[in-house]
Amino acid sequence: MTELAGKVAFVTGGSRGIGAAVAARLARDGADVAITYRAAADRAQAVVAEVEALGRRGLAIAADSADPTAITTAVRQTVDELGRLDILVNNAGIFPYGPIEQVGLAELDHALAVHVRGVFLASQAAIPHLGPGGRIISIGSCFAERVPYAGVSLYAMTKSALLGLTRGLARDLGPRGITATVVHPGSTDTEMNPADGEGADHERTFIALGQYAAAADVAATVSHLAGPGGRYITGTAIAVDGGFAA
């Protein structure tokens, strides 16, 4: 497919998991892709190699989404090196877990920095470069819609904030032909939450389909939103959760 031919995408946290799958899918659909990574340079370069093997341009940028200067500089570097920016995918994330009474200020601030401030700043930096047809797609979580067990209050709170931001962006940017959406993945087979990991069988009991998603399932929805099929979808969230929130 070449629905995204001539487009440039910027994917935060693109060296593994959902981010890597998104980068590969967008490249397969025709886009040049820049990704950020925090530490795994070798894995980021492997993603770039996959993008380039598909005949697209790839770029890996070391940038921690918790660092406001790093994330805005990465957006600018993408435009400088790839010539434009059409699609922003705010994917970088962490998974704080534990009783709320044990959450310290540093952990709270870090989760907010990655999931909320980093997304806001990346979007803010990208907006001047997005023209009509531009896309801002943020990766949320099924926990933003349903929290069936304890220990994820901080994570759920920070991911829930993305919908408020997205609704605001839709209003701010709609007159310019730019859309903003959230994708809420459910349990997805990644290193962060492997389908054969401890607690995975318990998580399956909450999923209507009874199985984990593949990262490619989430990437397919992101690519749809990024392409022509997403031109009239904005200010909303789409769940890719196997019925977790049903």
TrEMBL record:
<protein>
    <submittedName>
        <fullName>3-ketoacyl-ACP reductase</fullName>
    </submittedName>
</protein>
<dbReference type="InterPro" id="IPR002347">
    <property type="entry name" value="SDR_fam"/>
</dbReference>
<comment type="similarity">
    <text>Belongs to the short-chain dehydrogenases/reductases (SDR) family.</text>
</comment>
<dbReference type="Pfam" id="PF13561">
    <property type="entry name" value="adh_short_C2"/>
</dbReference>
<dbReference type="InterPro" id="IPR036291">
    <property type="entry name" value="NAD(P)-bd_dom_sf"/>
</dbReference>
<keyword id="KW-0560">Oxidoreductase</keyword>
